[in-house]
Structures are given as structure tokens and as C-alpha cells.
Amino acid sequence: MTNEQRERERRRKAAAARKAAARYEDPGVDYQRRRRARKRRRRVRKVCIALLVIFIVVIGLAGGTIYWIKYGPTKETYDLNKYFGITAKSQMGVTINNEVLDAQAITEGGTAYLSYNFVQDYISDRFYWDSNEHILLYTLPRDMVKVAADSKDYSVSDTVNSEDYTIVKTEGDTAYIALDFLQKYANFDYEVYKDPARVVITSKFGERQTAKVKDDSQVRILGGVKSPVLEEVKKGDKLTVLEDVSDWKKVCTKSGIVGYIQKSKLKDAKKETISREFEEPDYTGIKKDYKINLVWHQVTSEAANEGIEDALAATKGLNTISPTWFSVTDNSGNISSIASTDYVDYAHQCGLEVWALVDNFDQNVDDMELLSHTSSRENLENQLVNAALQNGIDGINVDFEQIPTDVGEHYIQFIRELSVLCRVNNLVLSVDNYVPKGYNTHYHREEQGVMADYVIIMGYDEHFAGSYEAGSVASYNYVKEGIEETLRDVPADKVINAVPFYTRLWNETPKTDEERAEDQGTEAASYSMKVTSEALGMEEAAQRVSEAGATVTWDDTAKQNYAEWQGDNDSTYRIWLEDASSLEVKLGLMKDNNLAGTAAWKLGFETSDIWDLIQKYVN
């Protein structure tokens, strides 16, 4: 088609279009205004769409912000001084064995110190602080370590040594001990950190769970991203894992921060064993290669020592005797002594060792005053050992009774110090103890089992003179419990169980109205009977039952022969007999538990058949 033909075709189509449009147009309508309206509507629609888009974006941003505020991780940090309980400039925070404790440490001159109470509770209770004479003591097997307060010097026996720091500092009533010095005698590691000042201690060694940090992250005070941050941790840092808490793990960082981190932030979980080379002191003392068969001999005067020959005449198989020779007489540690060399010589001729007893029964003695002063303890210890050496005595038997709870730490320090002198002078040290109960844990049987050669259970006085009800002096279960509980703390080859050669004859009478009124508000009010008793040896007890014409029956619970009879004024007599039958059961417990031997209170209260019985069990 030529250009001319194309132009004619274009004109034709344009004319046809005008003709078609003219066919439908209404001459009365303003089509131009209509087109403008259509344009306006299109603009409005576009504006609305734009506003809707803006609204959706704003809502999305607001929702995202709210979501972030609610669920996004916070960057807030927790005050570490508050976390460690630090309230003063000299204080240090303490983390021990992955546990954050109250700030019981201080720093001075670049040296870190722990409070004495903290050392006792968490490091070693073998360190002893004399707050009266301001001396720190530590007991070695054959020496005593001594440090005066605010000094750089310390002595081991007679040798004086020095450090380049003050070993013990005092602030008011509190003593602080340098960690470097503590580490000489106790098994622990430690690291000191700054900002804030804190010490991280490990005293428990063995297996632990660890993991590494995947990427830089945070340890928070609680599980949850909104919890404040305690410490920023870096990729590759090793953490100790303590426990799982949902999607979080409780961890301890190298710098002693205990907090929480998301599980997803950790990798390479594994168990590791931590250890430290440390040689524990060996407090080995004297151990006999035979079962101990000991009896206490109550001697009340020097003249009474002359009765030893008659007292031993009927015995068999006995290898140890403990005469009651020494008593503490004052708070300075002085003693009274009725020791006899002739007595010792005769005992030795009979093949017996002599373990002389010392007691604290004098009413003039205040146990706290006596035992809480180092000078008083040393005076007592030196007097005992000197008396033993002068008289050829083989051992010392400590019978300190009714020690108050708050005197316990001083009492066990006395046992430690006495053990050193006994060990050096080849003397046997034995210590008497009650049957273990919650109220006498302050006697520190476990430490006795380390320091002493023998720990003796006084397996009697289950019911005693002051009891509110009648009962056995030493029933089977009472003795059994005493042995089993003692063996939780003391090795069997150091435990001696003591049996009674006596019993109590009880007299019960119904309480009068006046007596019940007097008992109101006291423990005695729970008991309807008034009881009195008297202690009887075996022979006398059997005689009293025979004289009353009472029938003897076997009490299978107490494992003893039992009798009762009526007295005057509606009273009833009751007695649980100690005899060959009851003692054999107790000796059986000794044998079953492979104890170091047996002891008995007291010589002269037994019947002659008892020695054949005991000899059968100890040999």
C-alpha cells in the first residue's frame, strides 16, 4: 500500500469514528465535566489506597515495636556490686563452687582475705580463731601452726616463719585470713577478679559439666531475654553448666558469675574432671593389733589406788584399765591428780595398759572460759601429758560431759591439740561420747575420729536419774542406734562401745494433785507418774529382785530380763536387768560391726561370769 492509500484509509476511519460518536451523544450532556469527575474519582481512589498502605505500614511498625518491647532481648545490665552484696570499698564478692555468697571477703594491699566464719563453713573448720587472745591456730599431725593477729610472722612448733603480707587482719570482732596462707594447709584454688573486686574459689574437685559459647552472647540474672545482663560472654568461652531450666541453662562463668544463658547459644557440651595436687595431713596415731577390753575404775582418793589388786582379782581377758585420776579444777586449766606409779606398775604386771581418765565435773569450772582460751587449754594439755609421762601412764581418756553447744568448737580444738602432744609422746588418746543425737553433734565425732586413736560410745543412760519415766539404761535398739550413727562419722577400727555393769531400780507412784499443779508448763506435765531411781550393780540388782519375790521375764524389745512388783502407797517397782543375757546381745553388736573393742562402767559392779562372756567376744 502506497503512502497516499494509507492516508486515505486513516481519514476514512476517523470520519467513521466521529459519525459513530455523534450517533450516541446527547446534546444536553456536558461530557467534558463528566470526564473531569472521572479523573477526580481516580485521584481519590489513589489517595485512599495510599492512605491504606500507610496505615498498614504504621500498624505493622507499631506491632513490631510492641512485639520487640515485649519479646526482644534487653540490653539492661545488672549492678554487680548489688549482685555480690558489696557495700564497702574494701569488700570483695565471693563465688565458691559455682555458688555466689554474701561478700565475706576483703582486699588490702593486693592481698585477698576471707572471714574466719567463711573459712570455717566452706574451706576448713580445722582453722581455729581464739578471739580472746587473738591467735589463729591450725593443727598439724605433730605440730601446731600459730599466727598472732596483724602479724606477718607465724610459728610451726618453735620455728618462726614470715610472709610478705599480714596473715590475719581484724576488723572489729571479725578476723580475716589471707587466702595465700590458707592455701598452704587447705585444698582449694582461687582467682581474683576486678570490677567489682571478687574472688572465685574451687574447693570441691571432681567431675563437672561444661559447654562452649557458640557466638557472642549474654549471661542473665534470670532465664528470659528481658532479664538484666550480668556478663557478656564471647564466642568460645567455656562455661560450667549447673542445670537445665526450660530453654535456658543455669551456668557459671570463669569470673564467678552465676546466671542463665539460652540453650541455643551453647555447643560442645561434655563432662570434665577438675583436680588439684594437694597432700592431706596424715593424723595416724596408735592402733592396737587386738580388740580393746577396757573397764573404768572409779578411784576417789590416793588411798583407793591400793585396792587395784583386789579389784582385778576376778577379771579375765581385760587388757586396758581407765582409773578416774584427773579432774580439771579451775578455768586456767589446772588439774587435780591422784595418779599412782605403783598402780601403773601393778597394772603393767597384769598385762594391762593404763588410760587415765580426765573429767570436767568440778563445779568451779566454766567450760567456755576453760576451753576458749588457748593459754588455758595449753596449760591443761601440758599438765595431763606431764602427769602421764611421770607416772608411766599409757594413754589419756577424755570424759568431758555436758559441754554446751556454743563451746563445741573450743572443745574439739582441745582434742586436736591434745592429740598432737599424745602423738609426739606415744600416748593413746581416747574420747568418751554420748550416743549420737541431734543435740550433741557439737562434740564433732567425725573430727574426733581423725584426731583421736579411739572414740568410745557411752552406750548407756538411755534412762537416767533425772528421767521422767522408768525405762532401760541401755536397751538393744538404743545401743544399736548408737553404734550405727557413730559409724557414719568414725571408722569402725576406732570405735569402742561401752556397756553398763549397772542398772536402775525404778519406783513409780501416781502424782498427787499438788504435784500435777507444780508440773504445769514443764516437760514433766506430760507424765502421770512420779518416778525415782537408784543405780545398782549386777549382783545387788539380782538380790533386790529375789528379795521381792518378783518373776523375771524376757523383754524381747529391750533384749533384757525385766521384773516388776508392787510397793507401798500404790507404788510400782520396775527394773530392766543388766546381766550376762543382756550384755551378750550388746557384745554381739560389737562383733557384728567389727568394732575396735568394748568398755564397761564400772569395775566392781559386774558379776564374775561376765568376764568369761566378754573374753569370748573380744578374743
TrEMBL record:
This is Glycosyl hydrolase family 18. It comes from the Bacteria. The chain crosses the membrane at residues 44-69. It holds the Pfam family Glyco_hydro_18. GO terms for biological process: carbohydrate metabolic process. Residues 255-619 form the GH18 domain. Residues 1-24 are annotated as: Disordered. The lineage of its organism: Bacteria, Bacillati, Bacillota, Clostridia, Lachnospirales. SUPFAM superfamilies: (Trans)glycosidases (SSF51445). Residues 206-270 form the SH3b domain. Keywords: Hydrolase, Membrane, Transmembrane, Transmembrane helix. GO terms for molecular function: chitin binding; hydrolase activity. InterPro entries: Chitinase_II/V-like_cat, Chitinase_insertion_sf, GH, Glyco_hydro18_cat, SH3-like_bac-type.
